[in-house]
Design goal:
seven-stranded mixed beta sheet, four-stranded antiparallel beta sheet, about 0% helix, globular
Length: about 120
């Protein structure tokens, strides 16, 4: 699976951004999708995930209630709607894919930078 993330940019605290991740190379509906982020000097952390059908989503506590993950299997795309952004949300955001037989994410996109100014 090839993944291409986009939609990052500079936004003021309290603002919103929507990230997109376009997938190719495999039946999109056969993979679960996740969003991760890595802030400068920190380890990569889980942000959100969504099941293959889109019916089940999980969120990190730090983003719960502010971020929403969704997917459009017809467009081979997963989204991350980020609202009420905080400076601590500043990071490179990565999308990742995981096949049904995999416990870990084994396909990764290149990342898109989100900068939240306070």
């Amino acid at each position: 699976v090839q993944l291409q993330a986009s939609g990052g940019g500079l936004v003021q605290a309290g603002g919103s951004l929507r990230l997109s991740c376009a997938a190719s190379g495999r039946t999109f509906s056969s993979v679960a999708m996740g969003w991760f982020r890595q802030a400068p000097g920190k380890e990569r952390e889980f942000v959100a995930s969504i099941s293959r059908s889109g019916g089940i989503a999980y969120y990190a506590d730090s983003v719960k209630g502010r971020f929403t993950v969704s997917r459009d299997n017809a467009k081979n795309t997963v989204y991350l709607q980020m609202n009420s952004l905080k400076s601590e949300d500043t990071a490179v955001y990565f999308c990742a894919a995981r096949g049904a037989a995999n416990l870990e994410y084994n396909y990764w996109g290149q990342g898109t930078l989100v900068t939240v100014s306070s």
